[in-house]
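As a warm-up, study this chain.
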Amino acid sequence: MRLISWNVNGIRAAIKKDFVQSVERMQPDVLCLQETKAQDDQVLEAVAALEGYHLHTNSAVKLGYSGTAIFSKQKPLRVENDMGHEEHDQEGRVITAEFADFFLVTVYTPNSGDALKRLEYRTRWDKEFLNYILNLENRKPVVVCGDLNVCHRPIDIARPQANYNKSAGYTQLEIDGLDRIVEAGYIDTFRSLHPDTVKYSWWSMRGGARANNVGWRLDYFLASKALKERIKSAEILNEIVGSDHCPVVLELE
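Now compare it with the structure written out below.
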């Protein structure tokens, strides 16, 4: 099964940047999107040309903000939006699709914001999200994918010293949040297979960051250790454009 996750930074904008052609080129069995920035009907309208997938969306209460979607060739056994936690369920950030032998959770983790003004909220989110996936884990293994809005280690960010504890996405509290997920039994699939590879999945749209590869690895596939033997490959598709993020891939046998 070929799983792809992509923060599209607005599905309607992505459609104008060859989104459909990019998906056809990548050939996912399941495609998970973050930051659709559209309501459910707007997502459906935007992707009408993409055929062969069951589509599930989760939109924010606030118009034009956040939002997630899952496209799946195989119809999931069940799909659930949100975490069942009112504080966190207003922004369309989580969709869980249940398949025969695992849960697939796509997540658009909250950004801690300018001047880290949302870091306290983000810290609460990280704890509640871990509780959520561990409850799923009691039933079957879990794959988590999406824009986690954190660089886990210095290798995952082009300028670690300049950003540490100063920039959203590279504070110790955010790193601790991802550490707790890994310590709970989840594999960072890309880093597990490519321990020394410097590769990023997001670049600022300012100052030629992408052309100069001044990036951040914010997008992940995390997999339960129970799935370790099924992990065939994990990649970052830097050559796919159309967003300030690029897609990331996990292939399971």
